[in-house]
UniProtKB/TrEMBL annotation:
Name of this protein: Halobacterial output domain-containing protein
Halobacterial output domain sequence ranges: 24-94
InterPro entries noted in UniProt: HalOD1
Pfam family, one: HalOD1
Region (Disordered): 1-26
Superkingdom field: Archaea
Length: 97
């Protein structure tokens, strides 16, 4: 389960959330939820395919196996840059053109 908050900062971040590491849901589900929030739709109605940009199973495995480490990566998903951190923080921003 993700704890979501719209970004109030002055940077270009459109949406921030944090994946609950104790949740039975994979982190990819929280990413889909964040992208859906940015798009203004329910997650099942999201017309963005995360699996076209990243191996979703590998992402979920990375989070489960390395949640205590410090790592961060950003993946471009269509017009969005999605930053994911080991502590479960997820930020969605416009992708650089």
């Amino acid at each position: 389960m993700a704890i979501a908050t719209p970004s109030a900062e002055t940077d270009a971040t459109l949406y921030r959330t944090r994946h609950d590491p104790d949740s039975s849901e994979p982190i990819s589900r929280s990413i889909y939820t964040a992208l859906a929030a940015v798009e203004g739709v329910a997650p099942p109605e999201l017309d963005v395919r995360l699996y076209d940009s990243v191996d979703v199973e590998a992402l979920d495995d990375l989070f489960r196996a390395n949640a205590d480490d410090e790592w961060e990566f950003t993946v471009t998903v269509e017009q969005y840059a999605v930053r994911v951190r080991a502590d479960g923080r997820i930020a969605v921003s416009p992708a650089a053109e």
